[in-house]
Design a protein that fits this description.
InterPro entries: Calcineurin-like_PHP (IPR004843), CNP_phosphodiesterase-III (IPR050884), Metallo-depent_PP-like (IPR029052). This protein has about 280 residues and is of the alpha/beta class. It has helices at about 25-40, 60-70, 85-95, 140-150, 170-175, 180-190, 275, and strands at about 5-10, 20, 25, 45-50, 75-80, 100, 110-115, 120, 155-160, 195-200, 205-210, 215-220, 225, 235-240, 245-250, 255-260. It has 7 helices and 16 strands.
């Protein structure tokens, strides 16, 4: 079977206008630049997956700007719901490639699709606003996961927005994880022989975790980073981090994740402020 290639990007944080900025950077120019980079890769991806926080505030204007921007991609795109998103808005405003909904008739953004014998599952871990920025897999989503994560079947890849396991970064571990991530991990164990990996965003940082034979892989934000050092008790903007996306190769006998950082755009200097450096996920 020929390889399957996909691009993993995350946390674009579109605002309602072209001039919207966050952590000292305008997000829209970076999203447009990422699309140009993807469209000009030497190897064409079969699809692009965006693991959430398409917007910062889920407004119609922000989603329409995102839809207009991503329409320029030369490959199908799929989305996860981030803590800054609303699943109903992604359903309404953002076209996606062919898929099969896991909870049809609901707003939950959970679905499967297949490419050349590889199976892909998107989980919706967006919980109630009261637990934000944590995630939570509902009982229905856990049922979906258990139905998919069986020992037998085609190679399986899972996408969601939130980290499942601890990151050894105090603020992140206290605020950003899926509340029932350990339950999720246990539910994945029967499928580890066919599981390619769990790909996520949310932490604005490239990170890989390997546990019990399962790979968890985060993509950096396309425009603004956070630090995740073991000694940090407070979230901080990482002004030295380069924006990036991941190019993932699913070969018959191995999985390759290639991080693709890219330079800061000319005319987008970092504006360092105390508010941008720590203490909030908002502007």
């Amino acid at each position: 079977m020929p390889p399957v290639y996909f691009v993993h990007l995350s946390d674009t944080h579109f605002g309602p206008t072209e001039g919207y900025s966050r952590q000292g950077h305008r997000s829209l120019p970076y999203a447009r630049h990422v699309i140009d980079l993807i469209n000009n890769l030497p190897t064409r991806p079969d699809f692009v997956v965006h693991t959430g926080d398409v917007t910062t505030h889920p407004t119609e204007a922000a989603y329409r700007l995102a839809a207009e921007t991503f329409a320029a991609l030369d490959a199908p795109i799929y989305y996860c719901t981030g803590n800054h998103d609303r699943s109903s808005d992604i359903h309404r405003y953002l076209p996606m490639g062919p898929k099969e909904d896991c909870q049809p008739g609901t707003d939950t953004l959970s679905y499967t699709f297949e490419v050349r014998g590889e199976r892909f599952l998107v989980l919706d871990a967006r919980g109630p606003d009261q637990i934000d920025p944590h995630g939570l897999l509902s009982a229905q989503q856990m049922d979906v996961l258990r139905r998919e994560a069986t020992p037998d079947g085609p190679p399986l890849t899972i996408f969601t927005h939130y980290p499942t396991l601890r990151l050894n970064a105090p603020w992140m571990d206290a605020n950003m994880l899926i509340f029932n991530g350990e339950e999720m991990h246990q539910a994945l164990l029967p499928a580890r022989g066919r599981l390619r990996g769990v790909f996520y965003g949310h932490i604005h940082n490239s990170m890989q975790t390997w546990r019990d034979g399962i790979l968890y892989c985060a993509a950096a934000s396309t425009f603004a980073g956070f630090t995740t050092w073991p000694t940090e008790e407070m979230i901080r903007a990482d002004h030295d981090a380069m924006p990036a996306f991941n190019f993932v190769q699913l070969l018959p006998d191995q999985t390759i994740v290639q991080q693709r950082p890219f330079a800061r755009l000319v005319g987008e200097p970092v504006r360092r402020t105390k508010e941008n450096d720590s203490g909030s996920l908002e502007d």
